Amino acid sequence: MEKKVLHILACLGIVALLAAGARAAVTVSSEATAVNRLVVHADQGKDTISPEIYGHFAEHLGRCVYEGFWVGEDSPIPNVRGIRTDVVEALKRLDIPALRWPGGCFADEYHWKEGIGPRDQRPSMVNTHWGMVKETNAFGTHEFLDLCEQLGCEAYIAGNVGSGTIEEMQDWVEYMTFDGDSEMANLRRRNGREKPWRVKYFGVGNENWGCGGNMTPEYYADLYKCYQTYVRSYSGNAVVKVACGPSSDDYRWLTTVLERAAHHMDAISLHHYVRASGNWTDKGSATQFDEGEWFVLMKNTLTIYDLLKKSTEIMDRFDRRGRIGLFVDEWGTWWDAEPGTNPAFLYQQNTMRDAVSAGIFLNAFNEHCDRVRMGNIAQTNNVLQAMILTDGPRMIVTPTYHVFEMYKVHQGATYLPSDLTCRGYRRGNQELPSLIASASRAKSGAIHITVCNLDAQKPAEFVCELQGAQAGRVSGRVLTAQTMNAHNTFGEPEAVKPVELNGLTVQNGAIRGTLPARSVSVLTVQ
Ligand code: AHR
After folding, report:
1. Given the CA of residue 273, which atom of ligand 1 is nearest to it?
2. Residues with beta carbon inside 6 Å of ligand 1?
3. What is the pLDDT of residue 26?
4. Distance 38 CA to ligand 1 centre (A)
5. Domain match, 35 and 55 both
6. Domain check: are 57 and 206 in the same one?
7. Which of 368, 385, 413 is the last residue of a domain?
8. In terms of domains, do 400 and 450 share one?
9. In this structure, which residue's CA is closest to atom 3 in ligand 1?
10. CB of 465 within 8 A of CB of 449?
11. Atom 2 in ligand 1: residue holding the nearest Cα
C-alpha cells in the first residue's frame, strides 16, 4: 500500500492526506519490501535559504541571560566585558546568524532606559513573568549589542507594545542607530558608544494576543501601525519591522493582522511549541519517556509542515509578491522543568528526541524558505530546548546544538526540491513517515542533504539520486545514540555527539547507505 502524503501525517484508517506545500513530496509506503528513496532535483533550485532560519532567542528568563551569557566583568569565569567566552565560542561554531532579545513575554514589560548607564546606578525591577525574581538590569542594550558583535550576528530586538509607549520605542531605535546629533544619540555617546550599532530586525511587540497585552487582532493591528510608524531607519540602518503573529494555528489572528497592516510590515512572526501531551500542566519529562511519547512528539513536530503551508497560503492572499517574511521567532520542545529546579525558569534537559524534532523543524523551514526567512529556537542557554547548559563555570552542549552545527551548511545555500518515498513508522493505528529530508546546494557547488530517521527502533537503508547533477564523492555525519533519551550531562558531556556516517557508497550515480534508528544525518555530495 502506498500513500502520497504531501505533507505529511498518515493515519491508518483515517488517511489524512495533507496537500502539498508543493516543493517536496513524501510518499509513505507500508510495503515490507519498500525502498527508502530520495530524489533530489539538483537542477531546480531557485530560492536561497536565509541564514537567519538558523537563528536563536535569548530572554531574561531563568538562567538564559544571567549565568548563560552574562557573568559580569569581575567573574572568575573567563569573559569579555562580562560576557562568558565559552558560550560565545560555542555559538560561533554554529555560525549563529541572528539573536532575538530581550523576550519573549519579558519584552512587553521591559523599559530599556533602565538598562543603560553605569551598572551600579541602574534601577532593578521584578520579572513578573518568570518567577517574580529581581531583574538588576545589569544586562541591557549595550551589553546585548556587544554580545551580537562578539558573536558576529544580526541583532533582533523585540520592542515593548504591551506596557511601553510609542515614544519609548522611538527613542530606543534612535538611541541605538542614529549617527547624528540628537538627544538619544548623544545619550548613547555619554554612555560610552560613539558609533551607532547595526540593528537589522525590530519586533513590534511579542505575543500581544497573550502575555503581551491580551489584545484582539484588530486592536493589535491598529496599534502595530501606529508604533511601527516611529520605528525609523536612521543613518542607513534599514530596519526590518516585524509584526506580532499568531500562536501555532490561530489563523484568524494571522489573517486579521495581515488584512489591516500588511503594507506596514516586512515580516510577521509565528510561535510554535511542541510537546508529547495534550495539556500545558503536564507536559511530560524531558528525559523519562517511552516510545509512545517519542512517537507523539514526532507526530506533533510534523504539524509544522501543515502550519507553514497554511500560513503561507494566507500570506499569499495579502502579499502576492512574497515581500513579507514569516519569522518563526519562537519554536521548539517544551517539557516539565527538571526536578529540583525553579519551575518558572523553564530549565529542561535535551535528548536525542529533541534533536530529531529540531532536525524536522529545520528541514521544514528549508522547504518553506521562500516565505520562512527567520527562525529562533527557544532558547539559547538553560531554557527550554537549549543549545547550551551551564553549571557555574561548566558548560555543555546539547544534542540540539549538534543538529544546528550539522545543518549550518544550509545557511545561505540554494534550496533543492526533493521527492521522498519511505517506509512508514507505525504505532497502533497511526503511521508517520520514517524519514524527513531536505537538500541544498552551497556556493561551493557541494550538495548537502539532511535526513532525520524518526523511527525509534529501525534503521533505514536508503538510496538517493540526484537529478541534474552527478554524484562523485559522498561523506556523511550522523547524530544518534543507543537510547531514545540519551543526553549530555556535566559528568558525561559527550554522550551524544556526531560521528562519521560509515558505509556510504556511490554506484551509477546513486548514493546508498543506512541511517541508524533515531538519528539525524548530514550528507555532503561533491
Ligand atoms: O519562550 C518562553 C515564552 O514562550 C516566551 O516568553 C513567550 O513569548 C512564549 O510564550
Report:
1. 4
2. 59, 103-105, 206-207, 330, 378-379, 384
3. 86
4. 36
5. no
6. yes
7. 413
8. no
9. 104
10. no
11. 104
The rounded distance, in Å, linking the Cα atoms of 128 and 301 is 30
Closest residue to atom 4 of ligand 1, CA basis: 104
Nearest residue CA, atom 9 of ligand 1?
104
Give the other-Cβ count within 10 Å of 472's Cβ: 9
91 alpha carbon – ligand 1 mean position (Å): 21
- What is the CB neighbour count within 10 angstroms for residue 287? 18
Domain region containing 485? 2-47+415-525
Contact status, residue 174 vs residue 234, Cβ threshold 8 Å: yes
Per-residue pLDDT of 293-348, as tens digits, reads: 999 999 999 999 999 999 999 999 999 999 999 999 999 999 999 999 999 999 99
- Respond yes or no: is residue 207 known to be catalytic: yes
Q: How far is the C-alpha of 106 from the C-alpha of 115, rounded, in Å?
A: 13
Looking at the chain, the whole-number percentage of residues with pLDDT higher than 70 is 95
**What's the grid cell of residue 267?**
515580516
What distance in angstroms lies between residue 225's CA and the mean position of ligand 1's atoms? 23
Average pLDDT over residues 133-160: 98
Is pLDDT of 400 > 70?
A: yes
Does the annotation mark 293 as catalytic?
no
- Where does the pLDDT of residue 32 fall: very low under 50, low under 70, confident under 90, or very high at 90 and above? low
Q: What's the rounded Cα separation, in Å, for the pair 136 and 70?
A: 12
Q: Which of 330, 367, 405, 431 is catalytic?
A: 330
| CATH number of the domain bearing residue 361 | 3.20.20.80
Q: What is the CATH number of the domain that holds 430?
A: 2.60.40.1180
- Please spell the DSSP secondary structure of 275-318, one letter per residue: -SSS-SS----SS---HHHHHHHHHHHHHHHHHHHHHHHHHHHH
Q: Calculate how far, in angstroms, residue 218's C-alpha sits from the geometric centre of ligand 1.
A: 22
CA of 22 to the centre of ligand 1 (A): 31
The separation between CA 493 and the C-alpha centre of its own chain, rounded to angstroms, equals: 23
Annotated catalytic residue within 109, 174, 207, 405: 207
pLDDT value at residue 7: 43
**Where a domain ends, among 413, 433, 450?**
413
Q: Which atom of ligand 1 is nearest to the CA of 330?
A: 1
Q: How far is the CA of 409 from the centre of ligand 1 (A)?
A: 28
Helices (DSSP H) in 333-440: which residue ranges? 352-367, 399-407
> Per mean pLDDT, which of 25-29, 442-446, 506-510 is the most reliable?
442-446
Residue nearest to atom 7 of ligand 1 (CA): 104
- CA-nearest residue, atom 8 of ligand 1: 104
> Could you tell which of 56, 135, 271, 347 is best to mutate to test the pocket of ligand 1, judged by most ligand atoms within 8 Å of the CB?
271
Convert the pLDDT of each residue in 235-286 to its tens digit. Answer: 999 999 999 999 999 999 999 999 999 999 999 999 999 999 878 889 999 9
> Residues 359, 423: one domain?
no
372-378 and 55-57 strand pairing:
parallel
